[in-house]
Amino acid sequence: MQHFKTLSSYLDYLGLQRPEHPMLSVFTSKGNGYLPCHRESSPPIINDCYSISMKKFVKGNLNYGRTKYDFTNGALIFVAPRQVLQWDDSVVFEQRGFSILFHEDFLKGTELGQQIKKYGFFSYSVNEALHLSPKEERQIETLVENIEIEYQNNQDEYSKDIIISQLSTLFKYANRFYERQFLNRKEISNDLLEQFNQQLEDHFNSEQLQEKGMPSIVQIANKMSVSQRYLSDTLKKETGKTTTEHLQLFLVDEAKNLLLNPNKTIAEVAYALGFEYPPYFSRVFKKKEGISPTAYREKYKMN
């Protein structure tokens, strides 16, 4: 998988102009103008940059790690370093809006460098982009205009601090707006399902899958301080899926990322996810995705 370690190399890949600053780039549309077009398609890639983009007239789907975002209605999109990105020629990038990209080292040694790690919208934990109201959109655009002014001016000893201050304010507003969005979309942010998925995430990140295998529903329910029956019945009622189905969906989503690594065999992916028998992993994956792990890897391998 191609890995872009500098901002300039990533912009070259996208077909965009080199930045005014080696670790910061700002693109905005003016009046009836459009943002520069990106590449029409891309296999899975990663880079060492953060990006914040407002896409107003976008069609098609963009794969961000385990998530497929639909940007037909326009959205504010946050991407963190080393998250897998992929898109095809169905995505239309001729949009009004803005795009800010900065290398992770741009924040090194700053307070924001630590704070940014706490914002969920820069991780896979948020399963949708941020859709702004007209008033919210104007607030964000004002902040971006201030950032662009500093970016385009002859930079001095104050420029970086001012830009980082504006970025910090932008992230705080985004955090507020996400809270509003989730309150308005309770079906997306169901508390019990979030707790369930968090237990799976913790189990996976602690590498217990390889040591102890997949956790049982009873074990997960006990950690959540609810009964297995209550957990199963509630998730089935609110999502239409059983706890076992949610467990399998989580593992299949994790498998998608691992399968993008060509150096791992299908068996190694299965063992990494806690499956004792690779054929069983393949059956579960095919049941959920409609294709085998081998076919999935072939479909999304780098051109």
From TrEMBL:
The keyword Disulfide bond does not apply. One of its GO terms (molecular function) is sequence-specific DNA binding. Keywords: DNA-binding, Transcription, Transcription regulation. Residues 194-299 form the HTH araC/xylS-type domain. Coiled coil: none annotated. InterPro entries: Homeodomain-like_sf (IPR009057), HTH_AraC (IPR018060), Tscrpt_reg_AraC-type_HTH (IPR020449). PANTHER family: ARAC-FAMILY TRANSCRIPTIONAL REGULATOR, TRANSCRIPTIONAL REGULATORY PROTEIN. This is Helix-turn-helix domain-containing protein. It comes from Maribacter algarum (ex Zhang et al. 2020).
